[in-house]
């Protein structure tokens, strides 16, 4: 029997890694780190998890150690947050280019300066092009589920990409919610043993990480790009199988009350749950409003996204990050470019808020919907507007 | 070799499944200087062969040593190490 327990997202993610029977966890244990590796270290020390736990001297080393571990075919997990993700930045690209299916949770936090450990999406948005599969959890259950799913998808021989499971700093990482933990036998049914076809082995020598001069580098990058896009098939299959076993179904683009919606609000991560209540209030008021929660950010679910928004008049994109000097918030500019050449598309407007842990209560999302609709009807030329920031 | 591969031919993660494949790659094409052995001075001691970082110095039939220009990158270590001063680095333009 599965059991319902109270866990913060960090503990839920650690529990998922334990149930996935990871072989190696390499992580930097100090701020901005979360309870994910802390709990895993405890599990290893208590004999609840048979894994090598490698405490390293930085996040750069953490991910580097993970690459070595994945290269020998070990199931590998790590976790980071905020500044830590930025310190591992260069290794992120090595992981995806060398196709090592590490699973990593990122508890999304703001970036310095000023020093902040509170939540927003600045950390992950700075890694948009790192070549990982990137997903966002809305609650603690999803943090658990997506870690399990991450191993299933990333390690699939047709995929072999690292998977980044994002959940919001503090809002989820440090907040306790009920989480349903499955039976180990169900997890084992969903998640086969990791069989890496190119594991380093002295009896079968091969070269990982050869250099790429100009006459081959470009080909390697196209091969990587095509493979990441093609991973969509396994991503969807993984969620289908997950639903069949655990009864919770996921999609790249999650829809809430979008039937007949003239105005759609788009969010990523935990704010979706607050935004739902705002949508409910609008619906109660007779307004045709729906919510789109973008779960899968990479590979970007172009088809599903275009399908989801094509009948709306206005799409209000809510970003938790500023793209300094750029063409709008990062999610907004991606969404807009995904729609640019479509014949049937909504007008897209951008609001930015929730930066550095600033709370966004339901009424703020009602404002986002109202103001977004006004911006669209006014035909605003402003790239974005802000929510709850003094001095507007 | 590599210039004939398309992106479809590459292994996952660009892994090279065949070990010891360096001999298939032409590494001598960025050389600006090449070593030339003066057999009048050479006493066949073999230090150039020993020190060459790319194993590009070969023993030829009569016991002398010659660079294999398919691999030689022109680093000049052989010329530097030769106790008899029998190896001279010649600029590639001066063919």
What does this structure look like?
The complex is a heterodimer of chains A (392) and B (95). Helices cover 39% and strands 19% of the residues of chain A. Chain A has 392 residues and is an alpha/beta fold. In chain A, the strands form three sheets. Chain A has a seven-stranded mixed beta sheet, sandwiched between helices. Chain A has 14 helices and 15 strands. In chain A, helix 1 packs across helix 2, helix 3 packs parallel to helix 5 and helix 11 crosses helix 14. With 95 residues, chain B is α+β, with helices and mostly antiparallel strands. A two-stranded antiparallel sheet of chain B has the order 1-4. Chain B has a two-stranded antiparallel ribbon with strand order 2-3. The chains are: A alpha/beta (392), B alpha+beta (95). At the A-B interface, helix 9 of A face loops of B.
Keywords:
heterodimer, A: 392 residues, alpha/beta, seven-stranded mixed sheet, six-stranded mixed sheet, 14 helices, 39% helix, globular, B: 95 residues, alpha+beta, two-stranded antiparallel ribbon, 2 helices, 11% helix, 17% strand
Question: What's the topology here?
Answer:
The complex is a heterodimer of chains A (392) and B (95).
Chain A: E1 3-8, H1 9-19, E2 24-27, H2 35-45, E3 52-55, H3 59-71, E4 76-81, H4 82-87, H5 89-97, E5 103-108, H6 122-125, E6 133-136, H7 140-154, E7 163-168, E8 176-181, H8 184-190, H9 217-230, H10 232-246, E9 253-256, E10 263-267, H11 271-284, E11 289-294, E12 296-298, H12 302-309, E13 314-319, H13 330-339, E14 347-352, H14 362-378, E15 385-386
Parallel strand pairs in A: 2-3, 2-4, 4-5, 5-7, 6-7, 10-11, 10-13, 13-14, 14-15
Antiparallel strand pairs in A: 1-8, 6-12, 9-11
Chain B: E1 33-37, H1 47-51, E2 57-59, E3 65-67, H2 77-81, E4 87-91
């Amino acid at each position: 029997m599965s059991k319902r327990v109270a866990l913060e997202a960090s503990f839920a993610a650690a529990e998922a890694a334990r149930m996935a029977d990871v072989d190696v966890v390499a992580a930097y244990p100090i701020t901005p780190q979360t309870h994910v590796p802390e709990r895993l270290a405890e599990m290893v020390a208590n004999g609840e998890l048979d894994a090598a736990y490698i405490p390293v001297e930085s996040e750069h080393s953490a991910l580097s150690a993970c690459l070595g571990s994945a290269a020998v075919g070990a199931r590998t997990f790590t976790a980071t947050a905020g500044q830590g993700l930025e310190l591992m930045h260069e290794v992120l690209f090595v992981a995806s280019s060398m196709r090592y299916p590490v699973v990593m949770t990122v508890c999304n936090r703001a970036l310095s300066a000023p020093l902040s450990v509170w939540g927003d999406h600045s950390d992950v948005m700075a890694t948009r092009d790192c070549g990982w599969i990137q997903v966002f959890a809305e609650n603690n259950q999803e943090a658990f589920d997506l870690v399990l799913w991450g191993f299933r998808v990333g390690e699939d021989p047709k995929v072999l990409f690292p998977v980044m499971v994002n959940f919001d700093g503090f809002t989820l990482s440090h907040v306790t919610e009920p989480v349903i933990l499955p039976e180990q036998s169900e997890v084992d049914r969903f998640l086969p043993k990791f069989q890496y076809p190119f594991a380093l082995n002295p009896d079968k020598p091969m070269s990982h990480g050869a250099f790429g001069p100009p006459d081959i580098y470009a080909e390697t990058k196209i091969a990587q790009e095509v493979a990441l896009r093609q991973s969509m098939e396994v991503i969807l299959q993984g969620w289908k199988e997950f639903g069949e076993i655990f009864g919770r179904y996921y999609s790249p683009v999650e829809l809430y009350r979008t039937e007949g919606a003239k105005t759609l609000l788009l969010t990523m991560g935990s704010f979706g749950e607050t935004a739902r209540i705002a949508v409910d209030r609008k619906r109660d008021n007779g307004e045709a409003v729906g919510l789109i929660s973008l779960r899968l950010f990479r590979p970007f679910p172009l088809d599903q996204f275009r399908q989801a928004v094509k009948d709306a008049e206005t799409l209000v994109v809510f970003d938790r990050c500023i793209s300094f000097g750029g063409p709008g918030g990062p999610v907004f500019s991606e969404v807009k470019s995904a729609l640019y050449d479509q014949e049937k598309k909504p007008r897209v407007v951008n609001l930015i808020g929730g930066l550095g842990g600033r709370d966004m209560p339901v009424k703020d999302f009602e404002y986002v919907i109202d103001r977004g609709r006004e911006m669209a009807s006014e035909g605003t030329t402003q790239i974005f507007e802000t929510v709850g920031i003094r001095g507007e | 070799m590599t210039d004939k591969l398309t992106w479809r031919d590459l292994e996952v993660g660009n892994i090279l499944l065949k070990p010891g494949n360096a001999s298939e790659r032409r590494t001598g094409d960025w050389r600006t200087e090449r070593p030339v052995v003066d057999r009048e001075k050479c006493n066949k001691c073999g230090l150039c062969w020993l020190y060459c970082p790319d194993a590009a110095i070969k023993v030829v039939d009569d016991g002398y040593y010659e660079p294999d220009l398919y691999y030689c990158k022109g680093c000049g270590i052989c010329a530097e190490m030769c106790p008899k001063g029998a190896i001279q680095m010649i600029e590639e333009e001066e063919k």
